[in-house]
Structures are given as structure tokens and as C-alpha cells.
Amino acid sequence: xxxxxxxxxxxxxxxxxxxxxxxxxxxxxxxxxxxxxxxxxxxxxxxxxxxxxxxxxxxxxxxxxxxxxxxxxxxxxxxxxxxxxxxxxxxxxxxxxxxxxxxxxxxxxxxxxxxxxxxxxxxxxxxxxxxxxxxxxxxxxxxxxxxxxxxxxxxxxxxxxxxxxxxxxxxxxxxxxxxxxxxxx
Length: 185
Known about the structure:
Layout: H1 2-10, H2 13-30, H3 36-73, H4 75-81, H5 86-93, H6 96-108, H7 114-123, H8 128-155, H9 159-181
Helix pairs in contact: 2-3, 3-7, 3-8, 4-7, 5-6, 5-7, 6-7, 6-8, 6-9, 8-9
């Protein structure tokens, strides 16, 4: 980490931000690489809120670019593979409202691969604008937890992490309630 910090100190901040966002886009397109290491670098280089902001911009931009690329080339492949993943099959068959809530909910779950959510949303009937809003809404609390965790490890602050975690659980619960009030998913 010290090597990256010393290198980043030589790079102008706008260039460092651009590089971080571009790396995040590549990570999103590949779809299987975790972006947590990049978030850790961003928090170390730009601080808590700066790292959060740069990571959020990169993750949102990455998911949107990946959505557009996946939409172009993966629909048949996913239709065949979705038999093995019932939750993702629900996203494929969901109404626009259900898909919106599913994307928010899946983004909030830390162990659901972001690339998989993007892929299934891209090959579903979900519109780009709905995906952009739902994905961004789900990424904010999830990324706050990730940044808080990273920052807590670096600075050893625990209370902020618990507050953000509690907020993410509350949002997840609200999405779940909304889904139960609407159509069963």
C-alpha cells in the first residue's frame, strides 16, 4: 500500500481520480473481480469521503458501462444459465417495478456479485434509466459499509461502521417490505 501511496503522491489528483474511475469500469466489465481493493486504495489516497466519492463514481460508471455492453451480447447465454439460479431468474421475469426493487436489494447484499446483478438486469426487461437509479441507490449504503470497514481497519473506528451497517439493514428491510406489499417476488 505504501508503494501505491508514494506513486499516487506524484500523480495530479484529477489524473488519479480518472485512473481510479477507469480501473473501476474495467473491474465492472470483467464482472468477477472484487473492487474492494480499489476502494481501499481510494480511501488511503483520498481519505474517507474523497475515497467514498471516487469509488462511488467509479462503481456507478462501471455498472452502467457494463450494463450496456452486457445488454448487447449475453441475453441467450443467460436465458440458458438462469435455470440454475432461481433468484436471478426472478430478476429476468420481473416486472419493471419488481426488477427495480430487486436490483436495489441485491446491491445491498455484500456477498452477491455485482457483475452478476448487472448481467441479469441487462438481459432482463429492465430499462437503462431504472437500472441506473436502482443500482446507484443500492450501491450507496453498500459502499458506505465497505469504505467504513476499510477506514476502520486503517483508523480503527468501530462506531461509524455500526451506524452505516444499521442504515443499510434498515434500507434492505424497507425494500423487502415494499416487495411484500407489491407482487410476490
